[in-house]
Amino acid sequence: MLNDALKVWTFDRGVGPDIAARVALEQLEVPDLEVVLVSTRGDVITVQVVEGALSDAGDVLYVAGRGLYELVRSEAWPPATAEGAPRVLLTLKAWPSA
Which domain of life, per UniProt (predicted)? Predict the structure, then answer.
């Protein structure tokens, strides 16, 4: 499961978790990102963006099969190849926090 691409939808923080889940589960909107899971630690995950871009760092993200998260950290790494795009890692924490 760590190498499978996951779809991600972004939402304003004011959206209810039930609405975000419905939009994602029923795919009422096109996903904003595709990511690959890099690591998990409790309620924190790290993902690498493989398609799309995060437009607002204040948004919450619904990760398919995992639930709703807030952005804790974003890191841009140099491209793996000369013609490639920068690699972006996102550290996400389950939201809302318990």
Answer: Bacteria
Domain boundary assignment for the chain: 5-94
Task: Tell me how far apart the alpha carbons of residues 70 and 65 are, in angstroms, rounded to a whole number.
Answer: 16
Q: Which two tokens stand for residue 52?
A: 């799309």
Picking from 35, 44, 40, the residue whose alpha carbon sits closest to that of residue 88 is 35
Q: If DSSP codes are grouped into helix, strand and coil, which group holds residue 27?
A: coil
DSSP 8-state class, residue 64: T
First to last CA, the chain: 26
Q: Supply the pTM of this predicted model.
A: 0.89
- At position 24, the amino acid (one-letter code) is A
| CA 15/CA 33 separation, integer angstroms | 18
pLDDT in tens, 34-89: 999 999 999 999 999 999 999 898 999 999 999 999 999 999 989 888 888 889 99
Nearest to 9 by CA among 75, 55, 43, 77: 55
